[in-house]
Amino acid sequence: MACLWPCILVAASGILAIDTPHPRNSVLHHLTKQLLQKYHKEVRPVRNWTKATTVYLDLFVHAVLDVDTQNQKLKTSIWYREVWVDEFLSWNSSMFDEIREISLPLSAIWAPDIIINEFVDIGRSPDLAYVYVNSSGTIKNSKPIQVVSACSLETYAFPFDIQNCSLTFNSILHTVEDVDLAFLRSREEIKRDKKAFLNDSEWELISLPSTYSILQSSAGDFAQIQFNVVIRRRPLVYVVNLLIPSIFLMLVDLGSFYLPLNCRVRIVFKTSVLVGYTVFRVNMSNEVPRSAGSIPLIGVFFTVCMAFLVLSLSKSILLVKFLHNEQRSGQEQPLLCLRGDTDADGPRMDARAQRATVTESPIFQEHQAQSGTLKEVWFQLQSISNYLRTQDQVDQQDVEWLSLLYRFDRLLFRSYLVMLGLYIITLCSLWVLWSGL
Ligand SMILES: *[C@@H]1O[C@H](CO)[C@@H](O)[C@H](O)[C@H]1NC(C)=O
Ligand SMILES: *[C@@H]1O[C@H](CO)[C@@H](O)[C@H](O)[C@H]1NC(C)=O
Ligand SMILES: *[C@@H]1O[C@H](CO)[C@@H](O)[C@H](O)[C@H]1NC(C)=O
Ligand SMILES: *[C@@H]1O[C@H](CO)[C@@H](O)[C@H](O)[C@H]1NC(C)=O
Ligand SMILES: *[C@@H]1O[C@H](CO)[C@@H](O)[C@H](O)[C@H]1NC(C)=O
After folding, report:
1. Ligand 1 probe mutation, 47, 50, 87, most atoms within 8 A of CB
2. Beta strands of 106-161 (E only): which ranges?
3. Which residue segment(s) compose the domain that 259 sits in?
């Protein structure tokens, strides 16, 4: 038993040595070695240096990972493909066992230095070490890239916004005389292709138009290809979470105009709506994109709503103040008001009663003493009439103020209606514009 294992191992290694041909004898090895033996990856692979190397580009947008409006960055995942012809990497396939295509390490051959101009962050992409070369020297290199690119993001029409971000490819060093760019597929096909795009995200790919242009600079002319990633937001979640609740809150606030004007319940009601609105805004502040450049229209509307709420609340407070003056002068008590009204009235009523006793008591005393003169009675009567007259003037002023406030209330109600109408019309037109694309 002890000698059995070494015997088996020796036998097995013998069999292996016989069965597997040495890699050096394989046609693939032979071909690869022959191709790379005299190859210099430092040299642009053309026989006549006046000829430019044309790099054919292709792009598939796979997913939109993040749209950061605050930092104006777009994170996308793309599949990128480049194809060029290497004149030194071709062979006669009938001389090499009909091998038409082999893979070679990317590090061993010349590769174009094409970058994306809008890169702002190191995009994570797997290091793919190999490229495919076919027998006529055509090299295919494809890789997935996570691109973090700078893009001017517009939030004005949020949540019905459409973003247009460009990805510009060009050679960082080579001028158009050395490295030229071209499209691998037709531009129309690239524009319409959404097959690779993941459909279930917040963003929807609309189209991918592209342009070829030559960038002229002091360092020379550079070929560049620009792809425009046009995406639009799916607004449903924002309509449900943001727009409809805000419209409901405003409708409730609008309903408060149907409460009697001279009632303090209205203040309590408006205050609760204001608190509700504030809580709503604090909760939703993370949902609304923030950017220093442009404020979303919906944010402007929220602020206007808040301003209206505060305005109508202060108006109600003013109104209650004047109504209070009116009550002090002994007019009817508003029906729907809070109990607190009467409590607040207590001390004032007492004061009035005191004043009445003060003005009446001398006359009373005089009656008792039965020694008063007509002159004194006259003075007393005059003081009473003076008091009543000033009271009348105060009442008159109060009434004027009240009618002003009533008119203001009606104006405010109409402005509410106009604003709500504008809000809804704007949202609808934004939605129509959004769906038109
Ligand atoms: C290189 O190509 C140009 C035209 O494209 C031609 O005029 C020139 O003779 C060629 N040079 C060589 C060494 O073949
Ligand atoms: C490839 O090699 C075969 C056989 O050696 C030969 O007949 C053929 O002409 C060659 N083709 C080219 C394009 O050189
Ligand atoms: C190599 O690939 C290119 C581009 O795909 C193609 O045009 C060419 O015919 C291929 N060559 C061979 C020998 O298959
Ligand atoms: C996107 O922007 C480019 C210019 O940066 C413009 O030419 C193109 O028309 C825009 N596309 C859309 C759909 O707005
Ligand atoms: C996304 O939807 C389009 C059509 O709306 C479809 O052609 C495409 O295959 C879908 N993409 C994925 C990844 O499902």
Report:
1. 50
2. 114-116, 119-121, 130-134, 138-150
3. 238-435
pTM over the 0.85 mark: no
Pocket test for ligand 2, best of 91, 93, 95 (most atoms within 8 A of CB): 95
H/E stretch holding 4 reads helix 4-19
Taking only the tens place, the pLDDT of each residue in 245-279 is 888 888 888 888 888 776 778 888 888 988 998 99
| Runs of H (alpha helix) within 56-186 | none
Q: Are residues 209 and 270 in the same domain?
A: no
Average pLDDT rounded to a whole number, residues 27-43: 90
Q: What is the pLDDT of residue 374?
A: 84
Residue 403 lies inside a defined structural domain of this protein: yes
Render pLDDT for 160-171 as a digit per residue (tens, 0 to 9).
989 999 999 999
The reply to whether ligand 1 has any atom less than 6 angstroms from the CB of 47 is no
Please check whether residues 265 and 145 belong to one and the same domain. Answer: no
Residues 288, 277 contacting (CB under 8 angstroms)? no
Residue 5 in any domain: the answer is: no
- Single residue among 234, 264, 297 that ends a domain in this structure: 234
CA distances from 252 to 277, 314, 318 (A): 11, 18, 22
